[in-house]
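Morning, I've got a small favour to ask if you have a moment. I've been staring at a protein lately and its backbone has me curious. You're getting the sequence in one-letter code plus the fold written as tokens. I've dropped the whole record in just underneath, so have a look:
=====
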Amino acid sequence: MATNGTELSFAESARQIAENARYIAGGANSNFRLGMAGGPLVFERGEGPYLHDADGNRLIDYYCAMGATVLGHTPGPVLEAVRKQSEKGILYAGQAPIEYEAAKLICERIPCAERLRFGSSGSEVAQAAMRLARAFTGRNSIVKFEGHYHGWFDNILWSTAPGLNAAGPEDAPTPVIGSKGQDPAAGEGLSILGWNDLAVLEARLAKGDVAAVLMEPAMCNQGAIAPAPGYLEGALAACRKHGALLIFDEVITGFRLARGGAQERFGVTPDLCIMAKAIANGFPVAAIAGRADVIDLFADGVLHGGTFNAQPMVMAALVATQTMLTPEHYARSSVNGQRLQDGIRAILAEEGIKAQVGGFPLMFHVAFGLDQPARNYRDVARADKATYVRFAHALLKRGVRALERGAWFVSSEHDAGVVDATLEAVRGAAREVKAAA
């Protein structure tokens, strides 16, 4: 943390990024690590709620590895479980008892999980879910929603963060491609809708050609927006009526909104769900779970493969993580997360900065410039992003690392003292931004 009004320097991170761009494109191995306020950072280690960077700074971390580290950076039982499993070998090209233990835990905790398969990334299991839906229904079309992100592959990277000048009318969005080089033909089976509008979804399903409706059950890639009352229930009923599957993307919401994910929190059980991130506290594990009659198609003609699926060490991490995700964990962490959220809201109001702060205790969102809570992507897209980025940079200079898109992730290690230090930095950053306005 910066003290006595001293701002932190990140010169060594900048030097290493520039130097190593000779070997790694852009100096980073994911585009989502670029474009950070003040430049991408290089970290030497993490501990609890902190990251230590190449400049010797200790930062309070609310990226939480893009939401993955729900137990902080160095949970002892998880690291010890991985160490012990590593002594038994790295990869077998066969099954191990630890993956069956992991599968049983997830099936017991996730409401829709009668059966599952493990993978390595959210992008990968999203592809598996769509393939399953097409095989099960004999249909081709997939419905997705503006602002929802389901991976970086060509057939689904559409309208994840479109400019409003390109997105078309709200009741009939124009599909917007997500990357240079993306195959435009890959989106031919995709329908883009606005989220939280049940009438629009029902009308699309009535055409009878939809294999699956794929959605974040709470919109957390852009914002932290709860479903409107009755929306998830109505979506499930409409899918049942018109023969489509309902798929929840719980890559972010899983193990943050509740131990059983958003489906437990909201009491709506989809046909399938996909999970990653916090499932194993940052170890590369993903899963697709759901109805046995659908998932079992993987053993009956639907190809799902992967050299690293259910790698024993990451399965050990999953078991240890899930063992630590007790009701007591959620109760304790939620108190600190809610206090942080409420404190940020109060400070911004006191400093005269118009903002909406809302979401869930372990994952919330801060949007500058909005008069009302966001209901969908179009609302979030109207926020004052430029000023928020300046705020995030001001926080970083004070030793607090928060995502520039407004998301805040909270771990079990963000205790009362860490929250106090964060709120002190928030007040200083808010005053800096206000003074520059």
